[in-house]
C-alpha cells in the first residue's frame, strides 16, 4: 500500500501535465512502471523468544536464513567448503551415517542450529541418529521437548529427550543459536541488491537512461506525440527512467540525447560487489583462494596449500570438536574424524 501510495501522485501529475499541454508549451514526462525501492526480504532482529505455551519462536527467522543461503557471492560457497571438509574427514559410525552428518553440519553452519533425533531399538538403546531439518525444528518450553513445526496446523512432537540440539552460542541467546555470519548478512543482501539492480540495467534496454531534448520549431505537437508514444512503447519497466522534453523555440541543438550517469553506475556496482564480498569472507573467516575468488593484483593470494592448512587448523578442527559434543550427549562415539594430512605450516 505504501509503495503504491508513493507512486500514484507522480503518475497523476505526469498525466495532468500531458493533458494540459496544448500549443507550443514545453512537454516533459517520464516512462517506465514504478519500482519498489525497499528490499522485500526481511529478517527478524534479536527479540525475546516468544512462547506459545509449547515451544519457543527463534529470535532470527529460520526461513529468512534459509533463503539467504542462496545469496549471490561467496556466502554459500564458504559454508559448502566447511561442510565438504568436515564430511571428507568424518568417519561414519553405526549410529550416524555420512548423509545425516552432512545435513546436520549444513544446518548448523547456515542456521546456527543443528538437530539430530535419536531413535532407539526395542531394548531402549540408541539405534540410529536421524537429521531433523533445522528450519522447522523448535525447542519446547520444557527441557528435553522438541517439536517439528511446518506452519501453525502441522506440528509433530518428538519423544522426550530424543533430540540433540547443537547451537552456535551468542551472548544474547541461550535457547537458540545464531549463525556466526549474521552480523555480515546485510553485506550479502547489499550484494544481492546490486546484482538485481545490474540485471535491470541491461533488461531495461536503455541502461542508465537518457534525456531526449527536442528544440525544433518545425516539429508539430502531433510529431511530438508520435515520438513520445514510440519511446514509451519501446522501453520496458525498470529502475532507469528516460525523459523526453519538447521545448520549441530554442535555436541551439534542435535534437539532443543526454546520457545519465552510466560510468558512475558501473563504478559503484563493482565497488559494492567487492566490499560486500570481502565482508562476507571475513565473517566466514575463509581464505579467498579456497572459494575460487580471482585475485585482482599480480601478486595473487599466496600459496593455496598453506592457506588450506591454516584454515583447517584454525577453523575446521574447532568445528570438529563442536560436533563431537554429540558423543557426550548420547554416551557413545557416534562422531569421530580422521586427522588432517594436507600441506601447511608445521
How is the secondary structure organized here?
Layout: H1 2-20, E1 27-31, H2 62-68, H3 75-89, H4 98-111, E2 113-120, E3 126-132, E4 137-139, E5 146-149, E6 155-157, E7 163-167, H5 185-203, E8 210-214, H6 221-234, E9 242-246, E10 255-259, H7 262-284, H8 304-323, H9 325-330
Parallel strand pairs: 8-9
Antiparallel strand pairs: 1-9, 2-3, 2-7, 4-5, 5-6, 8-10
Architecture overview:
The protein has 346 residues and is α+β, with helices and mostly antiparallel strands. The chain has a domain at 62-181: Cytidine Deaminase, domain 2. Helices cover 40% and strands 14% of the residues. The chain is built from nine helices and ten strands. The protein has helices at 2-20, 62-68, 75-89, 98-111, 185-203, 221-234, 262-284, 304-323, 325-330, and strands spanning 27-31, 113-120, 126-132, 137-139, 146-149, 155-157, 163-167, 210-214, 242-246, 255-259. The strands form three sheets. The protein has a four-stranded mixed beta sheet. The chain is elongated and about 95 Å long. 24% of the residues are buried. The model is unreliable at 1-22 and 34-47 (pLDDT under 50).
Write down the overall mean pLDDT. Answer: 77
Given as residue ranges, the uncertain stretches (5+ residues, pLDDT < 50) are 1-22, 34-47
Strand order of the largest sheet: 1-9-8-10
> What structural class should be given to the helix and strand makeup?
alpha+beta
What fraction, in percent, of the residue positions are helical? Answer: 25-40%
Measured by DSSP, the beta-strand proportion falls in 5-15%
Order of helices and strands: HEHHHEEEEEEHEHEEHHH
Radius of gyration: 29 Å
The counted number of beta strands is 10
- Terminus-to-terminus distance: 62 Å
